């Protein structure tokens, strides 16, 4: 399945490799479903990330809100969306970042919205 | 025996619930979407179901990657809405159809399915949003629920064929239940969307519109499609559409397409619904 699916261009599927690679990032993000963890994240983001054992590279991707890199490191959108909820960051901005497009262009060219509409 | 009074297919995009929370229903972005559901809400008011079976996937809110059930069934007394990171939502808890849910679990295992059985669990937007779309925002939900979770997050996800087979068992469970409840089945998820990778923002309106017709009149091709086909046509997260097959397989092979609605985009998703009734 994963090998066949990998042939669909620009479409990463969250398979065994991704699940293993992204486990720490996703576990950290999942925990943001609890208010106390959101408070800890806001109070001292790096300390919060350290408490989940994130590597330096993983930490910098999260702290820079580099959504493209977080996904590449195995972050799954449904988990890392909880980071965007804390900020908050609209999901369309996360989409645009992954598509490497300006937000307005993304809304227009990918989602079919009218410009400035 | 209990009676299947209808099969509904619907999107469950979380932004739909957020739009209702923020009072955005009648804004230009959202009004056409919500207006199209009014006929579905009216159908539901007239149909007066007792039980809603809701087939959906969790989105990293209830299940983490430490344990990923391919199929899970709720047998709880109550399902509270889960905090997805934005804080608790002001919607009522969902009452479980406990006895009927256990009966469904019995039938599933008898028919060689192996579900996870959940007695204490919360529900995310996958169940919340479809209920809001068809029942509005009541003080208490007018139906009891039977939640069925399908893993569509971590591969391997179940095959479309397996979802179809589960729908057959669901029908058998409803028809062998001694009560006289009126049951509506909600298959949820989709339509086309992709949230991850450089193809993020992928929407396939042509495939979506064909789906809304085909799921009623000719679902066989969708049952036969591979998971890869779903991802290619509907996007990586659009593969959620396999969950509509549970609903569709529980219905007669001949159904009437009572209502249909499509709108794109809702957030980053092609969104819509169908209302199906068994043909006489």
Please give a quick description of this structure.
The complex is a heterodimer of chains A (117) and B (280). By secondary structure, chain A is mainly α. Chain A has helices at residues 2-5, 16-21, 23-30, 35-43, 45-51, 56-63, 67-72, 77-86, 91-99, 103-110.
Description:
- The complex is a heterodimer of chains A (117) and B (280).
- With 117 residues, chain A is mainly alpha-helical.
- Chain A has helices at residues 2-5, 16-21, 23-30, 35-43, 45-51, 56-63, 67-72, 77-86, 91-99, 103-110.
- Chain A is globular and about 45 Å long.
- By secondary structure, chain B is α/β, with parallel strands linked by helices.
- In chain B, the strands form 2 sheets. Chain B has an 8-stranded mixed beta sheet, sandwiched between helices.
- The two termini of chain B are 18 Å apart.
- Chains A and B meet through helix 1, helix 3, helix 8 and helix 9 of A and helix 9 of B.
Give a quick set of tags describing it.
heterodimer; A: 117 residues; mainly alpha; Protocatechuate 4,5-dioxygenase, Chain A; 10 helices; 64% helix; disordered N terminus; B: 280 residues; alpha/beta; 10 strands; 34% helix; globular
